[in-house]
Design brief:
The chain is an alpha/beta fold. It has 6 helices and 7 strands, in the order H-H-E-H-E-H-E-E-H-E-H-E-E. 33% of the residues lie in helices and 21% in strands. The relative contact order is 0.15.
């Protein structure tokens, strides 16, 4: 992490573990307000992927929670086209994932502390990793966000997707990470990739960003 940056992002991990303890393996257990919107997010995240008819594409579900994205992949018959791996900083979430899907690969890791053993993937999806900042200030969350995106992108050969809360809302909640698109575009263009898409066409108070290594034509 950047010199002097705190580990206060771990408070977010503690929050999600409390949700899991209270609500179990459900949309509320990963702090989504309802199932319908959660399913919409999975669809939008999967639109990042360009499938290869010759072989499965490798995908890392970063911040996988209890692997609900994998459940969606199986239901949508993507399973034969996707080589899925899940990663979460929380051992409690990974334990649930391994019990549900013993034949899939799950990683427990804090990528800001240790990147060893993560490997390379075609695509990395970060669904809900940055929507809540809780007690972090905007600047703390912005620093955490930039550091994490930079590190994760190194492990993606083709592209990543993530979502944040929009600033185009009736009001901004103090506990959510409402990120304007202008500073995000400047950050991506300067240090990550100039090949990105902002998507705000799916009816939620957020937007999704796809970041690609190569131009899409």
């Amino acid at each position: 992490m950047e010199q002097g940056q705190s580990h206060s992002y771990k408070n977010i991990v503690t929050h999600y573990e409390r949700c899991l303890e209270q609500f179990g393996d459900s949309f509320r257990g990963v702090d989504w307000p309802n199932e319908k919107d959660a399913q919409t997010r999975y669809q939008v995240m999967m639109d990042l992927v360009e499938f290869n008819n010759n072989k499965p594409v490798s995908l890392l579900d970063f911040g996988c929670g209890t692997a609900h994205l994998l459940e969606y992949i199986v239901k949508q018959s993507y399973a034969g086209q996707i080589q899925y791996s899940g990663l979460d900083i929380s051992k409690k979430f990974i334990e649930v994932c391994r019990n549900k899907f013993p034949d899939h690969h799950f990683i427990t890791s804090d990528i800001l502390a240790d990147q060893d053993g993560i490997g390379q993937f075609d695509y990395i999806i970060m669904n809900g990793v940055f929507t809540e900042k809780l007690s972090l200030s905007f600047d703390e969350m912005w620093n955490y966000f930039r550091d994490l995106i930079a590190r994760v992108f190194r492990h993606a050969d083709k592209g990543i997707a993530f979502n944040v809360m929009s600033t185009q809302v009736d009001w901004e909640r103090e506990d959510l990470f409402h990120l304007p698109t202008d500073p995000l575009a400047s950050f991506l263009s300067a240090g990550i990739s100039k090949n990105y898409i902002f998507r705000k066409d799916y009816g939620l108070y957020e937007y999704t960003c796809y970041v690609y290594r190569e131009p899409r034509v």
